[in-house]
Amino acid sequence: IGVVWLTVDETIAHLGLPSRGALYQAVRRGQIPAHRLGPRRLRFRRDEIDAALGRAWNQLPGAGDGRTIGG
């Protein structure tokens, strides 16, 4: 399978974010990788987002030790 590109709305749904503002803030902070197509259009590679989430998840306290977070 080739690269899967997501729109802003698809990325929001994939990540379960509450708003476009939350996504844009995560992009500005460098938490979510984004690709700009022209001056206004953003697209996201699903594999890059999933990799970024995996890195963030592994940095949480207790991640990777078999316990659930908060439990």
Which residues form runs of ≥5 with pLDDT under 50?
66-71
Terminal residue distance: 37 Å
Cα-atom Rg, whole angstroms?
Answer: 14 Å
The total beta strand count reads 3
Structural class: alpha+beta
Q: What does the largest sheet look like?
A: 3 strands, antiparallel
- The overall pLDDT average reads 82
Specify the oligomeric state: single chain
Estimated share of beta-strand residues: 5-15%
Rough outline: globular
What is the chain-wise order of helices and strands?
EHHEEH
Can you offer a commentary on this structure?
The chain is of the alpha+beta class and 71 residues long. It has helices at 8-15, 20-28, 46-58, and strands at residues 5-6, 35-37, 41-45. A three-stranded antiparallel β-sheet has the order 1-3-2. The protein starts with a strand and ends in a 13-residue tail after the last helix. The model is unreliable at 66-71 (pLDDT under 50).
What are its keywords?
three-stranded antiparallel beta sheet; 71 residues; alpha+beta
How is this fold's topology laid out?
Layout: E1 5-6, H1 8-15, H2 20-28, E2 35-37, E3 41-45, H3 46-58
Antiparallel strand pairs: 1-3, 2-3
In short:
The protein is of the alpha+beta class and about 70 residues long. The chain has three helices and three strands, in the order E-H-H-E-E-H. A hairpin with a 3-residue loop joins strand 2 and strand 3.
